[in-house]
């Protein structure tokens, strides 16, 4: 039987009039948004603009927050934060396997660690990992569940510049291989335009700009056409570059 067209085209994430507020202060102000299945989207915004609030709402991690609106998201969602959140008393592989089961779980965990470049570190303790390695382990832990949606909240924000560039390549490769929908929260315009095929700017509780970045991958910061996207995004963020 032919699959339902509706199922093929149904967005992975759908928000209608999503509102969230803290102590009477509105942070998300009626957001309408669809994220198609398999799309790599970045969400930009100033500090305090509500990026994490939106991500937590989509992740279903905000039961105590006041709000309204409609939200639908896939069943299998993984979340990666700036801090790897590995349990220090469990070895790396055991961290990756936390909450998974099935008799091939350990094999899948080892495969996920190999995929993020941590083959041979299965029995290491989290304290023995560098910041970049810990984030690799966090990515392995998120992927072992084969998520339909990967939510990442400034996952590279605490890493040095070189490590961050390597992590960009890794995240893009992982996405190509597994094809989850990705929502990457970042305040780094360059990170957004190098990685994402669509960039949203959160401003005053709404999506102020929704930009499709139609350039091939892997992308280079030197691509002059990316420069045009950068300028539009900076303008939407209210940043002017001519400080000289
Ligand atoms: N649990 C909370 N209680 C009260 N205020 C909060 C809470 N979480 C976030 N806020 C407020 O909501 C606003 C948006 O926060 P957040 O979503 O973390 O912003 P971003 O991730 O874009 O930096 C900020 O003003 C923040 O202080
Ligand atoms: Mg945040």
Automatic annotation (TrEMBL):
<dbReference type="InterPro" id="IPR027417">
    <property type="entry name" value="P-loop_NTPase"/>
</dbReference>
<keyword id="KW-1278">Translocase</keyword>
<dbReference type="GO" id="GO:0005524">
    <property type="term" value="F:ATP binding"/>
</dbReference>
<keyword id="KW-0547">Nucleotide-binding</keyword>
<dbReference type="InterPro" id="IPR003439">
    <property type="entry name" value="ABC_transporter-like_ATP-bd"/>
</dbReference>
<feature type="domain" description="ABC transporter">
    <location>
        <begin position="13"/>
        <end position="229"/>
    </location>
</feature>
<dbReference type="InterPro" id="IPR003593">
    <property type="entry name" value="AAA+_ATPase"/>
</dbReference>
<keyword id="KW-0472">Membrane</keyword>
<dbReference type="InterPro" id="IPR017871">
    <property type="entry name" value="ABC_transporter-like_CS"/>
</dbReference>
<keyword id="KW-0813">Transport</keyword>
<dbReference type="GO" id="GO:0016887">
    <property type="term" value="F:ATP hydrolysis activity"/>
</dbReference>
<keyword id="KW-1003">Cell membrane</keyword>
<dbReference type="Pfam" id="PF00005">
    <property type="entry name" value="ABC_tran"/>
</dbReference>
<keyword id="KW-0067">ATP-binding</keyword>
<dbReference type="InterPro" id="IPR050166">
    <property type="entry name" value="ABC_transporter_ATP-bind"/>
</dbReference>
<protein>
    <submittedName>
        <fullName>Aliphatic sulfonates import ATP-binding protein SsuB 1</fullName>
    </submittedName>
</protein>
């Amino acid at each position: 039987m032919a699959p339902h067209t509706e199922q093929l085209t149904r967005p992975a994430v759908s928000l209608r009039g999503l509102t969230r507020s803290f102590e009477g202060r509105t942070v998300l102000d009626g957001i309408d948004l669809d994220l198609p299945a398999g799309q790599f989207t970045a969400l930009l915004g100033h500090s305090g603009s509500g990026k994490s609030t939106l991500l937590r709402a989509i992740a279903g991690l905000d039961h105590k927050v006041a709000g309204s609106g409609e939200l639908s998201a896939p069943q299998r969602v993984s979340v990666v934060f700036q801090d790897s959140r590995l349990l220090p008393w469990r070895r790396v592989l055991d961290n990756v396997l936390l909450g998974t089961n099935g008799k091939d779980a350990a094999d899948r965990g080892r495969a996920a660690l190999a995929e993020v470049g941590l083959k041979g570190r299965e029995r290491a303790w989290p304290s023995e990992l560098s910041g970049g390695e810990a984030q690799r382990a966090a990515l392995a832990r998120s992927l072992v569940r084969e998520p339909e949606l990967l939510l990442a909240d400034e996952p590279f924000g605490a890493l040095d510049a070189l490590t961050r560039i390597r992590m960009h390549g890794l995240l893009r490769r992982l996405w190509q291989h597994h094809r989850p929908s990705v929502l990457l929260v970042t305040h780094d315009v360059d990170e957004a335009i190098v990685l994402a095929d669509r960039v949203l700017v959160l401003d005053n509780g709404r999506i102020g700009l929704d930009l499709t970045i139609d350039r091939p991958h892997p992308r280079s910061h030197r691509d002059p056409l990316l420069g045009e996207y950068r300028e539009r995004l900076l303008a939407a963020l209210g940043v002017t570059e001519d400080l000289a």
